[in-house]
Design a protein that fits this description.
Shape: elongated
Distance between the termini: 26 Å
Strand content: 15-25%
Helix content: 25-40%
Order of helices and strands: HHEEEEEEHHEHEEH
Number of strands: 9
Structural class: alpha+beta
Number of helices: 6
Length: 230
C-alpha cells in the first residue's frame, strides 16, 4: 500500500526519508467479488443430490497477463476454513483484481464520492464489465482444456465491486530505498528509518522484505553507536 502521510516534523527531522516517502505515488484498482452457484446432479428419487461445481478455472490463484481489465484472480473458497469450500457448498467465491490501467481509466471517466448514487452506479458498471471479462477468460481457459463454457452455463448468486482508490504504490520510492537502505529508507546521520511495500514491490512480500531491511539497518545503527539512543 502507499505510505501513510509522514509525521509533520519528519520533513525537518529527516528530509531524505520524508522526500522519498512523498515520491511514492499511488494507483487505483477495483476489486470484484463473484459468488457462482454450484450445480446439482442425481435423480429426484429420494437419493440426496450431489453438488457438481461449475469451475470457472482449475487454479486457486493466478496473475493474468495480457488482459485489459483483469490482472489477478483467486478462488476465495479454497482458503482454509471457508464454508464455501466444503464439498456440499452452494456457491464458490472468486475475488478478482482489475488492472491499474482499467481502474485509472474508469476513475478518471467518472469521479464519484462513496455513499452516493453516482458512486454506486459506477460500481455497478464496473462489476458488469469485470464479470464479462472474467467469464471471457474462463471460456478461453475451458477451450484450451478441450471443454466448453458459456456465460449461460454460469449462474451468479452474488456480485459486487469495490473501488480501491489507493491500492498500490508506484515505483517512486523504490530507487530512493535502493540507494539509501537496500529495501528501506534510511538517514544514518539522523538515525531515522522508514519501510513499507512501497520501498520494494506492491505485495505482501515487498512489505516483509522492506521490514527485514529496516530491522537490519537499525541493527547496524545500534552497532555503530551502541550508547546512542534511537
Amino acid at each position: 500500500a502507499p505510505p501513510p502521510p509522514p509525521p509533520p516534523l519528519l520533513s525537518l527531522a529527516a528530509p531524505a526519508v520524508w522526500e522519498a516517502m512523498r515520491a511514492s505515488g499511488q494507483t487505483p484498482s477495483f476489486a470484484l467479488m463473484l459468488a457462482v452457484k454450484n450445480g446439482t446432479s442425481g435423480a429426484d428419487d429420494g437419493v440426496k443430490k450431489q453438488k457438481s461445481k461449475t469451475r470457472l478455472f482449475e487454479f486457486q490463484g493466478a496473475t493474468v497477463a495480457g488482459d485489459d481489465v483483469v490482472a489477478w484472480i483467486a478462488d476465495d473458497s479454497s482458503k482454509p476454513g471457508r464454508p464455501t469450500g466444503a464439498p456440499d457448498a452452494d456457491v464458490t467465491c472468486w475475488v478478482v483484481q482489475s488492472t491499474p490501467a482499467y481502474a485509472a481509466r474508469r476513475v478518471k471517466a467518472m469521479a464519484t464520492v462513496p455513499g452516493t448514487a453516482p458512486h454506486q452506479a459506477l460500481l455497478n458498471e464496473v462489476a458488469e464489465e469485470m464479470t464479462d471479462a472474467l467469464l471471457n477468460l474462463a471460456a478461453n481457459a475451458a477451450k484450451r482444456r478441450g471443454e466448453s463454457l458459456e456465460a449461460s452455463d454460469v449462474e451468479i448468486a452474488h456480485v459486487t465491486a469495490h473501488r480501491w482508490g489507493a491500492a498500490f504504490p508506484d515505483d517512486g520510492a523504490v530507487a530512493a530505498a535502493a540507494a539509501a537502505g537496500k529495501g528501506c529508507l534510511a538517514d544514518a546521520e539522523r538515525r531515522v528509518v522508514g519501510c513499507g511495500d512501497f520501498c520494494v514491490s506492491p505485495k505482501i512480500e515487498g512489505a516483509a522484505l522492506s521490514g527485514a531491511a529496516a530491522a537490519a539497518r537499525v541493527a547496524e545503527m545500534i552497532a555503530e553507536t551502541p550508547a546512542a539512543s534511537l
